[in-house]
Amino acid sequence: MTKEDVLRESSEGDSVRGCYSFIPCNSDRPVIHQVASAPMPSDCEFSFFDPNDPLCQEVLQDPQTTVPELFAVLRQWVPQVQRNISIIGNEILKRGCGVNDRDGLTDMTLLHYCCKAGAPGIGDAESAAGFARQLLSLGAEPSLRSRWTNMNALHYAAYFDVPPLIQVVLQASQPGEVDSTCSDFDFGTALHIAASNLCTSAVRCLLELGANPAFKFLRSGCPSSRNPSLGNIHIHIQTHTHTLRTI
Predict the structure, then answer these.
(1) Residue 61 burial by CB count (10 A; 0-12/13-18/19+): exposed, middle or buried?
(2) Which pLDDT score is estimated for 26?
(3) For residue 109, what are the CA distances in angstroms to 70, 167, 185, 200?
(4) Which of 21, 54, 113, 197 is the most exposed, fewest CB within 10 Å of its CB?
(5) Dist CA 150 CA 157 (whole Å)
(6) Which of helix, strand or coil describes residue 125?
(7) DSSP string covering 191-242, please?
(8) pLDDT tens for residues 67-92?
(9) What is the SS3 assignment for 188?
(10) Average pLDDT over residues 43-52
(11) Which uninterrupted H or E stretch holds 33?
């Protein structure tokens, strides 16, 4: 899907960018949206937003429901929300949200949320990867980082162990981005992040896509000398590198 496809579908009333838009979309100047609470039906019997519930569907499709409110929905770490990232995300886009706009609370973009939404046991990796491709076709920038975590889309995908998102993000990234570092993880790469969380699927995927297993933390050289909890990172990387070589 290209930008032209989306605009063409919009003129035909497609759900990607529908008939209502409240925010002028300017890809050159992304917006940081104010913080709001998640909108809940008045007689809702549960504490989280469920897009499959008819009452929640009414709220989701109501043009008066705002972008900040829908970002608040995306922050709910429950399967009902994360497995419907494309439905909620497209409702956000309908309201004129720029593809690189940010949630005012987390400073995360839709692509960042998408990389989280594929987490095993919580989300749907293939559905999230499909929505990520849509966002990238609309101009989502994979190198953008949250100001609070300094993590980019690849770092989130590695942290949450989502190989399909790792592949999609790296296909859209500049050469060398596979080894981009993150200050919140002692300037480790996505490979360090995945190994420190024992995200074996992400480690394997990153190594197959060219991540450097010899890359050391920029701040302290050996990670174990700085943070004992990360002392086995290189052991995990070496183990999975050896596994790949024997396959």
Answers:
(1) middle
(2) 45
(3) 12, 18, 20, 26
(4) 54
(5) 14
(6) helix
(7) HHHHHHTT-HHHHHHHHHTT--TTPPBTTTBSGGGT-GGGTTHHHHHHHHHH
(8) 999 999 999 999 999 999 999 999 99
(9) strand
(10) 84
(11) strand 32-33
pTM above 0.90, yes or no: no
Report phi then psi at 157, rounded to 5: -65, -40
Q: 28 exposed, middle or buried (CB, 10 Å; 0-12, 13-18, 19+)? A: exposed
Whether the per-residue pLDDT at 189 is higher than 80: the answer is yes
| 3 state SS of 182 | strand
Helix axis angle for 233-246 and 200-208, nearest 10°, is: 60
Instruction: Compute CA distances 107 → 101, 205, 231, whole Å.
Output: 9, 27, 30
Q: Record the tokens describing residue 56, joined without a space.
A: 């929640």
Q: Specify the pLDDT at position 239.
A: 61
How confident is the model over 143-165, as pLDDT tens digits? 999 999 999 999 999 999 999 99
Measure CA 176 to chain center: 20
Q: Is residue 205 classed exposed, middle or buried when 0-12, 13-18 and 19+ CB atoms within 10 A define those classes?
A: buried
CA distances from 206 to 65, 133, 233 (A): 39, 19, 14
pLDDT value at residue 209: 97
Positive or negative torsion for Cα 93, 97, 101, 102? negative
CA distances from 5 to 10, 11, 16, 137, 243 (A): 8, 10, 10, 10, 42
